[in-house]
Amino acid sequence: MKKIRLVLVGIAMGVANVIPGVSGGTIAIIFNIYDKLMECITINIKTILKNLDFLIPLGIGVVIGILGLSKVMELLFFTLSFTNLFCIYWYYHWEFTINIFKGDC
């Protein structure tokens, strides 16, 4: 069950990496695996080998998410390019506007 959860979190991270303005690291923080992920990504080979049961399912999910959504995004951009670009533009426009009023910019 834990490995299935890691694959699903990996898919969410992969999808987030494809969508403009969203990061896979943000998804890792939301699902509370960021600290463990940062501990596992190291130069120390022993640490990597010790955590393969965590890294492999997560990596498989990330690859599935990136490949799956990139094909969907490619299809959408070729068939509905103006509509998608319009939506992305307004998403960033409203995000910037909201941040100005909140005082975050």
**How far apart are the termini?**
42 Å
Largest sheet: none
Q: Please give the count of helices.
A: 6
Structural class based on helices, strands and sheet pairing: mainly alpha
What does this molecule look like?
The protein is an all-alpha fold and 105 residues long. The chain has one domain (2-78). It has helices at residues 2-18, 24-30, 34-40, 45-50, 52-79, 81-102. The longest helix is centred in the middle third of the chain and has 28 residues, at 52-79. The radius of gyration is 17 Å and the shape is globular. The mean pLDDT is 83.
Give the helices and strands, then pairings.
Elements: H1 2-18, H2 24-30, H3 34-40, H4 45-50, H5 52-79, H6 81-102
Features:
single chain, mainly alpha, globular
Please outline what is shown here:
This protein has 105 residues and is an all-alpha fold.
